[in-house]
Design brief:
It comes from Nostoc piscinale CENA21. The protein is an alpha/beta fold and 265 residues long. Helices cover 42% and strands 18% of the residues. Helix 4 runs antiparallel to helix 8 and helix 5 packs across helix 7.
């Protein structure tokens, strides 16, 4: 799996499948593997590009401030290196914030947009929580850190199966490319400082906004604001899903994505 240099850093990426290109942008503290359950649903029909944002996984982790605009520039540069003039863009959470900036900065590169569990701007509670997560990194052990975060990501139904949570924590602890203190900190500040509230009206590509009804981290109201202010946006609320819908509601999310993308072939 290759790396390319963009904007002075190395970006780690992989490409699978054939067909029209679909670019996946992961969220806070997540590298490209967060899309693993969704990937099989897409690669049978599309060429899928996954990559690690700056500050995570096997990409560079510069110890300097990040912004979602800067990460959108990283993404655009990756598309250029891969020789892709345009792609379907899918972003989850912080990845959705990056995707918004990509559509605003480089509208010609975005055929259409799918924003999962994302937001234009955090409210006070959300920003306080993300700030705390950024500050806690490195101050407590990884197991406790995961136990603090996961209740915000998954639903009661998911927690009703204890072995599911245990498996996720075990995977996170043993993952060889776990998030670093500085990567978590700088990504957290990029999320907090993101604000496209007044600019998303300038996103003119077809857009699907999707969110779990039980998402307590980026609640439905955040997605409603996106859908109301992006001119060609439609909103889909997943009845039984939380912020971790890519893991907890994979089949439903996959079908919604495929249905939406099929409109633009």
């Amino acid at each position: 799996m290759p790396k390319v240099q963009v904007n002075g850093i190395d970006i780690f990426y992989e490409v699978k499948g054939t067909g029209e290109p679909v670019l996946l942008i992961a969220g806070f503290m997540c590298d490209r593997t967060y899309w693993s359950l969704l990937l099989p649903h897409l690669i049978s029909r599309y060429q899928v590009i996954r990559f690690d944002n700056r500050g995570i996984g096997q990409s560079s982790i510069p110890n300097s401030p990040y912004s979602t605009q800067e990460m959108a520039q990283d993404t655009a540069a990756l598309l250029d290196i891969l020789g892709l003039k345009q792609a379907h863009i899918i972003g989850h959470s912080m990845g959705g914030q990056i995707a918004q900036e990509l559509a605003l900065l480089y509208p010609g590169k975005v055929k259409n947009l799918i924003l999962l569990s994302s937001l234009a701007k955090g409210n006070e509670r959300f920003n306080s929580l993300i700030e705390t997560w950024g500050n806690l990194a490195g101050k407590i052990d990884l197991m406790l850190y995961e136990k603090l975060i996961l209740p915000w990501i998954f639903t009661d139904n998911f927690y009703a199966i204890p072995e599911m949570v245990d498996q996720l924590i075990e995977w996170a602890i043993n993952y060889p490319f776990a998030p670093t203190t500085q990567g978590i900190y700088h990504q957290s500040r990029a999320i907090i400082n993101h604000d496209t509230t007044e600019r998303i009206k300038n996103i003119h590509c077809p857009t699907l906004v999707m969110v779990g009804k039980q998402d307590i981290l980026t609640p439905v109201a955040f997605s409603e604001k996106l859908a109301q202010n992006i001119p060609q946006a439609e909103l889909q609320v997943i009845e039984h899903g939380g912020h971790g819908c890519l893991i907890e509601s994979t089949e439903i999310v996959a079908q919604a994505i495929l249905n939406f993308l099929s409109k633009f072939k």
